[in-house]
# Entry
Amino acid sequence: CGFHLRGLGGPLKAMPFASLSVDGAGPVYNQVLVELKRDGRVSLPAKGVAADALLVIAPESTSKDVLTVNRAGKVSEYQLTLRQNALLTFRQSDAPVPVSVTVRRQMSYSEQVVLGKEQEEAQLWAGMQREAASQLVRRLAYVKPPETDLPATGKTDAPGKP
Amino acid sequence: DTLPAGSLTVTADELSGQMDNELKARGNVVAIRDDQTITSDWLNYYVKRNELIEAGDRVHMTQPGSDILSQKLDYSMATQQGSADDAVFAFQQGKGVLRGKSDELKILGDKHYELKRTTVNTCDPGDESWYLKATTVDADYTRNVGVARNARLYLGGVPVLYTPWMDFPLDGGRKSGLLFPTFSVGSAGLDISTPYYWNIAPNYDATLFPRYIAKRGLMLGGEFRYLQPGYQGQMYTEQIEDKETDTHRYLWKGRHQQQISPDLSWGFDGSYVSDHDYFDDFSDRLAQVSSDNLERQAWASYNLGWGAATIRAQRYQTLIDNARGSTIPYARLPQITLNGGQRLPAGLSWNLLSEATRFSHPDLQQGDRLMLNPSLSWRADASWGYIQPKLGVNFRQYALDGWRYGGTPDQQRSRNESITTPTFSVDSGLYFERESEFAGSPHTQTLEPRLYYVNIPYRDQSKLPNFDSSINDFDWTQLFSENRYSGWDRINEANQLTAAVTSSYIDNDSGLERLRVGIGQRVYFSEDRVKLYPGESVRDNVSDILATVGGDLTRNLRLDGAIQYNPEQGRTEKYNVALRYHPEAGKALSLRYRYDPDELVEVNGTAVNYPTRQIELAGQWPITHQLYGVGRVEYSLAAKQAFDTLAGFEYNAGCWTFRMVGQRFVTDIDQFKTSVMFQLELKDMSSFGKVSDTLRLAIPGYSKTNE
Amino acid sequence: EIADSSKPIELSADRGTLDQNNGVTVWDGSVVVNQGTLQLKADHVVVTRNANGQQTLLATGKPATFRQKVEGKNEYIDGKGNRIDYDSQSGIAVLTGNAFVKRGQDSVAGNVITYNTQTELYQVSGSNPQTTGAAKGRVTVILQPKTEEKK
# Structure
């Protein structure tokens, strides 16, 4: 039915840069570094070493809103929203390209199990941060490099880690 | 010939003067200097008197950002100071416009004006729908702040408000001075609060809220905010001598955060009220809905590089009358946590979760609990997949005090418990792709099967108390976690395999995930004998099937849904579906349906199961290009009741926007509260009423039309 | 300079004619008139001398020009106009017909400029007194920034 393993049956979609330096702080920033190392299509030079592009991860903006109320007028569902913005700037162009990802989760709530729900919410946020990071890295492959024909020499052979 | 900067060109019908000294111009005088232009009937210019210009009878002085028409103008080009009589002016900076007339307009310097006996507003010329009449308005465009003194606000020509002092932003920025009164009429009668914003210092400010409530009397509220490089925080309080209950009632709310050193920080936050009904009587809907337990905590945290150590004291104030037992959450006095982890070479990484906590409670069993959970995992990644085995061991040591109320003699003695639980899990996944199409444009379709195996041996935890554990929702996150309980008092027995597959369509052009569908189920190879409470029903052999769908079908249309199907009983356990249409600012529609046959509902302290079939419709839509309708209804088909109905409109007349919203919402079983709220926003000047905050929560995608 | 008006007038031209009975001399062809630091150039100059020896000049040219040093400064005043009437005794020059006077960086332009070379007072009007009722001409003065006076 046409499906092939990514990177084996067909060309792996190359990143529009060969090396990337990443700036920022916070859980999503840390997870983006993990995802980039796992992804393997891009080299991550050490701080200070020039790279083909710079990705700046903005502080994440989160909100926890009441989604539904039950018949006793109490919260029955919260909606957790994580908005993660980032700016990708190619070395030879100074126009940063905005890349943003929004992740939403719902969580039921009950005043009977406040401490339990506190930790369940923390687990949901951690999962949302991992998903935001992986979607952000996946989205980078689709950013158009500036007109000057940048040699897109992203590594195409997928290095199998030991 | 381009003139050098600073040269003055005067053109008129008649001219006379003395070179290098003075100049008199008569008849249609036009004087131009750099970007300043002055036109008048007559004009004198005195070089020796600080390049003073005197101009009269219909003087019109314009420069970028300012336009002044007056009877007589004195202006020194050297000092850029001067004054204009009977001035009609218009100043502009950024999006902010300030227009009006004043008996005397003093020019104190470049872009800094003082208006004496003036009326100002931010409307189009001739639009007098509202204006501010003040003895002085100091408009300093270098600091973007306007300050009015002895000011009266006129709405439709009628004075509605007086303030001795008020500041407002000049560039359309958010910082607004006088927060105008908030009116609402509801079941508690007339409710007016007139907040005053007090900008104490660049990083200290306060807002004072005197508030009159017809049935209860005068409440004094105040919020104090501070922001310094090393620390920041805010304190909020409301105090009232309640006429109806003849008691002193209050609310305290505070937050503080301080960075002592790059690695050491501490803080506290929390809220406390005088009595259980405080929120029902005084606060807006949001606070009532989500506040049976008010958290108070203080914490200090040290960053170790590979992890962080935190100590905190936390307790809750439970606002339920004669609450007992599990209705009151345990207090953690204190809780010390040490979490961290590091990546090691060759794909290995270790992780540590650990915690030592003293749990205290008014009537339930108290005790100390130490928990250590180190784990080691290894991960291999390729472009086509990954595999990640993980081995951990959970050690728990309890020092339990004896029961103080009831219980068997055995339970009334203090005792220790210690349990060690090894845990093992393997997460693995493959990534398949193919080129395909979605809605006519090329998309990449992914297919990602995932297998997740968990093995945790049985440990008898029936003699353990339940300090902080609860059963997690059975959702996608739960499908891929080792323990179906949160908290550390229960670790489920597991010999289970979760199989799931997700597929999504990714737009080859934008990388936008158009649609993502996922389906997963768990197979239990053995029975889970761990229970949180005796009657807990635990699944064996197969779990429910979980399916989720979500995606931006188009740039404006968002679909989200999830369903939980029970194959053994052949029925749907739960499902919800939501559609959100948001073509542009000011237009938003959302529809959501939720079905849950036995949702847990607390009815003052006791948990009861109710069927839930709830539909939520919300929208903001333009009626005319200035009038917008807003509405929301959350209707329970099971209870045949609307838990929340809201309707209103928003009229945007350019330089003022008026919002009026009526809301009726449930506060307890078959008890409702109604309120009507007004909000008037004067463009860039100020707004009064918090209606827009209520709307932002009620209507997904709501946006203010004057933003 | 102020002292110019007490200086003798020297004059040179291609052709000159003398009209004895009313003391009028007429000069034509690149006429140059010098009086102290004042220098006037024109195509046609009529010099009349009145009873007590005061001389007045009427110069026309395309344009007629004059130049004079400013009292006490090494700056010059330059003026031009289709016609210049100059009274050497009072030092007043009347320039008519797209008249223009420049002193240092400052300049004055208009239809008729009356300029007193001694007091540096000037008057500029747009309308030409001979053609009453004509469209009001505009006059312009351009004053440069006084650098030394700048704060």
Notes: Chain B has a mean pLDDT of 88.
